[in-house]
Amino acid sequence: xxxxxxxxxxxxxxxxxxxxxxxxxxxxxxxxxxxxxxxxxxxxxxxxxxxxxxxxxxxxxxxxxxxxxxxxxxxxxxxxxxxxxxxxxxxxxxxxxxxxxxxxxxxxxxxxxxxxxxxxxxxxxxxxxxxxxxxxxxxxxxxxxxxxxxxxxxxxxxxxxxxxxxxxxxxxxxxxxxxxxxxxxxxxxxxxxxxxxxxxxxxxxxxxxxxxxxxxxxxxxxxxxxxxxxxxxxxxxxxxxxxxxxxxxxxxxxxxxxxxxxxxxxxxxxxxxxxxxxxxxxxxxxxxxxxxxxxxxxxxxxxxxxxxxxxxxxxxxxxxxxxxxxxxxxxxxxxxxxxxxxxxxxxxxxxxxxxxxxxxxxxxxxxxxxxxxxxxxxxxxxxxxxxxxxxxxxxxxxxxxxxxxxxxxxxxxxxxxxxxxxxxxxxxxxxxxxxxxxxxxxxxxxxxxxxxxxxxxxxxxxxxxxxxxxxxxxxxxxxxxxxxxxxxxxxxxxxxxxxxxxxxxxxxxxxxxxxxxxxxxxxxxxxxxxxxxxxxxxxxxxxxxxxxxxxxxxxxxxxxxxxxxx
Length: 566
What we know:
Blueprint: H1 2-21, E1 40-43, H2 45-51, H3 55-68, E2 73-79, E3 82-87, H4 89-103, E4 117-121, H5 134-151, E5 155-159, H6 167-179, H7 182-187, H8 189-204, H9 209-222, H10 226-250, H11 268-276, E6 280-283, E7 286-289, E8 298-301, H12 309-324, E9 328-332, H13 338-350, E10 359-362, E11 367-369, E12 372-373, H14 384-402, H15 409-426, E13 434-435, H16 438-441, H17 449-463, H18 481-491, H19 493-503, H20 507-526, H21 534-557
Parallel strand pairs: 4-5, 4-9, 9-10, 11-13
Antiparallel strand pairs: 1-3, 2-3, 6-7, 7-8, 11-12
């Protein structure tokens, strides 16, 4: 609401100067450095510079103009080069809370994405490997972005671009043929295949010829060797079964599971187009595209004719453009792949297509274990299923201690444990590396997912079996700082969602929810909510109800379940 007033004030001032002086002035409208100065501040430096007049004269004129605008303002206080404004707390608070009450979970809906299509490529694990903690980042950042973008009116298409093709399968086949125990693999497919993958890399350190054997095995796959393809299909099916257990647990779904193999028959037309446009060059038997002095060339085909990751991604982006008609495509992939996506964008541009700027790499940092990156090859990965199970067990212990007789204890512990893990990730800006600590994540206090859930449960308990009249409230209460601080935060929900959508940063929503929960708990410590006076009680209940609506919806946008009790 205050963001809307700021925007309207800006627009009216721009129109005022345009009409009076026939000049465009970029008016800045911001928050004062101190809340005691006002709710809105308008610095007048640019106006003085543009009109070439003295500051006091410019400020006086602007104050008169603002007074004439039909805006819910309480007072206008010029302080030097700044015009500080207090909004009408009663009118603003009334409007915000009534809107939440009427809209419920639809509060905060935005239309910035109306009629636009966004394709999201995320999660995308390699098959034949267990889901590690490292996969959580892409999965949950992508899932949250999908939910946030939907809230902003975008049509979303989510793709799990499975790593189901490439030289690693040549390695797997060589390892299977040399050391595989079929009975053991059938009993525990993914763990046994993981062990073979690790063993291959250990043995390859002493026997480099194994790498050549792996490349040849993958070449046989590309030549459709039936034995190798049958083995590949079986590995893919078993991997999907294991991955689906994780997705079901996290409540994550996709519109497509088309992985790398899906594009095997779609690369030749792309390579031909590169040839027809004279972009392909030969370099030591390989086919490359020169991308300029500031970027390494893109390797399109190896000297043995084998396909490469960039070729496949190029085929994929054109297929997705045709299939989904995307306005933007997001690749939620680690920071270390930045160069790859820079090359992809440059390739699309050099081919003459104007949508290269709509390709966005949404990068993220690593999960670190004792300061080091985990590696499947070295066998030091932390399995995501184990982390989630540990978090749920820790949550069960805490839930039991706090509320031993609670019903549906297992379901509640599951949702608290998952909230702990997911929020511990999403509260951080995605570009940063994370040292994950499961014990801290599951705490009911501090900057955690369970803390947000617990705040929501506290409000649910306050409101349980209560009725209140939102039209019979005491508006004078909003003059109290702790009331209006909370109302202002509730009113920021939409702008925070829009900022998260524009910056592809779920952490904006996560940090906002922490501020909201903290503000409510401060309010709760200062005010008795269920009081004798009817108007005060209605006001308190309406405010608490509004906070819960926003908390619940905000958690949903992060892919976290809200609870009624815990």
